[in-house]
Write a structure and sequence with these properties.
Layout (H helix, E strand, L loop, with lengths): L1 H65 L8 H10 L14 H4 L2 E7 L2 E7 L2 H4 L1 H30 L12 H10 L7 H8 L2 H9 L5 E10 L9 H12 L6 E5 L5 E9 L3 H17 L10 E8 L5 H17 L5 E3 L6 H7 L4 H6 L3 E10 L5 E12 L3 E4 H4 L6 H21 L5 E5 L8 H11 L8 E6 H6 L5 H9 L3 E7 L14 E6 L1 H4 L6 H16 L4 E3 L5 H10 L3 E2 L11 H5 L2
Parallel strand pairs: 6-7, 9-11, 11-12, 12-13, 13-14, 14-15, 15-16
Antiparallel strand pairs: 1-2, 3-5, 3-6, 4-5, 8-9, 8-16, 9-10
Keywords: Membrane, Transmembrane, Transmembrane helix
Protein name: EAL domain-containing protein
InterPro entries: Cyclic-di-GMP_PDE-like, EAL_dom, EAL_sf
């Protein structure tokens, strides 16, 4: 019996030894494979960073060209710009013992007529922190993976070692016992496992749920000089002003404004940081515009927590900035992000029509300006609802919640009635453009009401109605009643959200159509997008053949405006010209 048991134990020991050898072979293969992967990763990372340097150099050459800096006579200016972008005009002397590895690399960057020979440190030196961080992460992942693999391997050996140790040779049993240890169990981990899952994660990662982030946009009433780097200037000042914060971001937007993010702020300190931010921005602006007053610097802020929808955060911040610009004495406004905002709107969809019927709304007016003369041609009516808990809501926010046909009809009826009242109170030679809900273009109820309402209104020829391009072309046969009702009052139609020139020729028989409005997607950043410019050029060409003017919407920068002029767009509207105005007489008297 004892001999049989000894043979069995010896067999198990041999299996343990063979398993150990297999484990060591796997470890060797694992280390070799990981080393190769790590080398490939570093080569690829170096190539990506090199491409980044090449792109930055090209942008610097473009900046020198745009600023019309003479490459020969203004070397000091170019040197400053180069240093700001991480380049040098002349090579620095590398440490003697490392000169073979740390010598600067030189490249020639060109843009049109400008060519710059610049020096820069190798990417593994300039971005050494990135190499170190990513390599440490990869090594940590590899070690963690191997450790768990070992734990799983040992769990398979545990039944083998459960045999009575007295039957094993003492030295061999001891050596196996030494090599295969039970995993260390930490008491703190045991306590952690006893917590609910949410509390466990909070304890493990030290998540502070009461921390907020601030996203801000700011507007200055006076333009800054074109030859300064606004992003770097304000980033430097804001980082110095908030040294206690670990995460700060300052980004220059395509529209020319600045977006600022401050992270990990206590809920109780949000208002204090908001006021400090306005003060710091004002002081930074004074460096380049000494004639500024505090009322010239307006800031909109949205405070939010991790997981917030960034699109909604941006929209709320923009709304806060609009409120600040409209206020004569409150130069900074804050709208907090509410996770239940969309839910509250959806749940309150049944009550939204009450805001219309009870006249709890306002009309704003967006003027359209002639790009040749600067004169105002017409203005677009925009509805806003005063929600009891969510504040001022734009049409884009609340109209999708209106699913009842009656409520949709009442919406446009209320807008038309309000415009009529304003035109009767303040007669104007300018046209008022009204966006009709897509469903109301096919609503017999709305156009019967419209025909009856217009009988007693003398200024009906001043009304213009906007319809989406897709709706007009796709449902043209169904628009007969609507177009007839508008034609009967000598009103006009505007095709909105135009994206293509393919079907413009179909508009020629419809004399009631008096113009085309380009989509915002074609306007935004058109100065730097050749594809958008080509599309607008084709639209203008086709519309000119049938004598239809083309209008731009959402113009935010001088560059966008200049490009539209060159392409033949005759008029435009947007924040570049003015904010939507609250009172009709403000528009007509401008």
């Amino acid at each position: 019996m004892n001999n049989t048991l000894a043979i069995k134990n010896n067999s198990e020991i041999i299996k343990v030894i063979e398993s150990r050898n297999a484990q060591m072979r796997m470890l060797s293969i694992y280390v070799i494979a990981f080393t190769l992967l790590l080398g490939i990763f570093n080569i690829m990372l170096g190539e990506v960073l090199h491409q980044k340097v090449h792109h930055t150099g090209g942008q610097l050459a473009k900046q020198v060209y745009d600023l019309k800096i003479d490459v020969i006579t203004e070397r000091d200016v170019i040197a400053a710009l180069a240093e700001n972008h991480g380049f040098m005009l002349e090579p620095h002397e590398a440490p003697l013992h490392f000169s073979a590895f740390m010598a600067e690399e030189s490249e020639v960057f060109s843009y049109k007529s400008v060519s710059l020979k610049l020096y820069h440190w190798p990417s593994w030196i300039a971005e050494s922190y990135l190499f170190i961080l990513l390599n440490l992460i990869l090594i940590g992942v590899a070690v963690w993976s191997y450790r768990w693999w070992c734990v799983l391997f040992k769990s398979k050996l545990k039944p083998v070692l459960s045999a009575p140790q007295d039957d094993l040779p003492f030295t061999l049993a001891k050596s196996v016992e030494d090599k295969i240890e039970e995993p260390h169990i930490d008491k703190s981990n045991q306590e952690l496992k006893q917590l609910p899952p949410e509390n466990a994660l909070t304890t493990l990662y030290a998540i502070q749920n009461n921390y907020n982030h601030l996203f801000a946009l700011f507007y200055c009433g006076q333009p800054f000089p074109h030859n300064i780097d606004l992003e770097n200037h304000f980033k430097l000042v804001i980082v110095k002003g908030f040294k206690e914060l670990s995460k700060i971001s300052v980004k220059l937007l395509p529209s020319g404004g600045l977006a600022i993010t401050l992270e990990n702020i206590s809920q109780t300190d949000v208002d204090n940081y908001m006021k400090r931010l306005h003060q710091i921005i004002f002081q930074a602006a004074l460096v380049y515009r000494g004639d500024l007053s505090r009322k010239d610097v307006k800031v909109g802020v949205c405070n939010y927590r991790d997981g917030a929808d960034q699109t909604i955060v941006y929209q709320l911040t923009k709304s806060a900035l609009v409120q600040a610009k409209q206020s004569a004495w409150q130069h900074i406004q804050r709208i907090p992000f509410n996770y239940t905002r969309s839910i509250e709107l959806a749940e309150g969809a049944d009550t939204l029509p009450d805001y219309i019927t009870k006249k709890k709304f306002m009309l704003f007016f967006q003027p359209l300006f002639d790009l040749a003369t600067g004169e105002m041609l017409q203005h677009e009516a925009l509805i806003r609802i005063r929600h009891k808990s969510l504040g001022m809501l734009s049409a884009r926010q609340f109209i999708p919640q209106l699913t009842n046909e009656t409520a949709i009809v009442q919406l446009d009826q209320a807008v038309v009635e309000q415009v009529i009242k304003l035109l009767e109170a303040e007669p104007s030679s300018l046209t008022v453009s009204i966006n009709v809900h897509p469903l109301n273009w096919f609503s017999r109820q709305f156009w019967l009401w419209f025909d009856k309402k217009m009988r007693s209104f003398k200024g009906s020829n001043k009304l213009q109605f906007e319809i989406l391009e897709d709706d007009f072309y796709q449902h043209l046969p169904k628009l007969t009643s609507a177009l007839s009702a508008i034609k009967a009052i000598s009103g006009t139609v505007l095709i909105d959200n135009v994206t293509t020139s393919n079907k413009i020729g179909l508009l020629e028989p419809y004399k009631i159509v008096k113009g085309l409005k380009l989509s915002f997607e074609l306007i935004h950043n058109i100065d730097s997008n050749l594809k958008q410019q080509k599309a607008v050029r084709q639209i203008v060409l086709q519309s000119t053949r049938i004598n239809l003017p083309v209008y731009g919407v959402g113009v935010e920068t001088q560059l966008e405006l200049n490009t539209l002029k060159k392409l033949g767009v005759v008029a435009a509207q947007g924040f570049y010209f003015t904010e939507p105005l609250q009172e009709f007489n403000q528009v007509t008297s401008s």
